[in-house]
Amino acid sequence: GIGKCVAMDLARRNARTILACRSRERGQAAVEEIRAATGNPAVVLRLLDTSSLASVRAFASAVLREEARLDVLVNNAGVTGLPFAITSEGLERTFATNYLGPFLLTNLLLG
């Protein structure tokens, strides 16, 4: 998808690239594919579920602690067509995933 294409382009430019993915298995497969295609070993996976504000906070905390700087943030998470559901934090899942999570992430990383 769009996120993988953006990550591939950043890696081709020799940027340290963090893939923020919900699925460890799919994310790791994307990391390996991007590394192989670009020759850039600085492509890493971090788990993130933007429907969970706790996951967003943990991800942002790790990035701020582990990374010297962050030059570009691409908010690409999104879902559509899911049945109505409430997250464990009491938020409507689609709204949390598409809006609240990315908004919180951006604000936490602005630091």
From TrEMBL:
The keyword Cytoplasm does not apply. Belongs to the short-chain dehydrogenases/reductases (SDR) family. It holds the Pfam family adh_short. GO terms for molecular function: oxidoreductase activity. Keywords: Oxidoreductase. This is RDH12 dehydrogenase. It comes from the Eukaryota.
